[in-house]
UniProtKB/TrEMBL annotation:
The lineage of its organism: Bacteria, Bacillati, Actinomycetota, Actinomycetes, Pseudonocardiales. Gene3D superfamilies: Winged helix-like DNA-binding domain superfamily/Winged helix DNA-binding domain. InterPro entries: HTH_MarR-typ, MarR/SlyA-like, WH-like_DNA-bd_sf, WH_DNA-bd_sf. This is MarR family winged helix-turn-helix transcriptional regulator. It holds the Pfam family MarR_2. PROSITE patterns: HTH_MARR_2.
């Protein structure tokens, strides 16, 4: 079968939608939304990130991420700490780190299941092809 650009774009979107639905369902028993878990995951990889940095990493606007961060601070998942100048940085609390790790275990199961029909070589090839596509100028 010869794939058209639109076919591939739709397949990527469908897979992403499937992952979002499955991850949201898997994270629900932890009391986490997908965007909350994603925030914890990015914060673990980027300690003391600014609100703007986290908004970019989680595909949120600064305003919507600010609201989300406030709720996560209230729940004791993250804390705000003074940064350089007037900047405010964020970091995981112990509770946030525990929920991030528990969520990662669930996410690993979901994603592994999604790609289970691919061989290791196919998975490597898909990853490499997506890297190439992501390097392309979107304009």
């Amino acid at each position: 079968m010869r794939y058209r650009h639109a076919d591939v774009a739709l397949a990527v979107k469908r897979l992403q939608h499937r992952h979002h639905r499955a991850l949201s369902q898997a994270l629900q028993p932890l009391g986490l939304s997908l965007v909350q878990w994603d925030t914890l995951r990015h914060l673990a990889n980027h300690p003391e990130a600014s609100l703007h940095d986290l908004a970019v990493l989680t595909f949120q606007t600064d305003q919507s991420f600010g609201t989300l961060a406030g709720r996560m601070v209230d729940r004791g998942l993250i804390e705000r700490v003074p940064g350089p100048g007037r900047a405010v940085q964020h970091r995981l609390t112990e509770k946030g780190a525990e929920l991030r790790a528990a969520g990662q275990e669930l996410a690993d199961v979901v994603v592994k299941s999604s790609f289970s029909r691919l061989s290791a070589a196919q998975l490597d090839e898909l990853g490499a092809l997506l890297d190439v596509a992501l390097e392309a100028d979107p304009a």
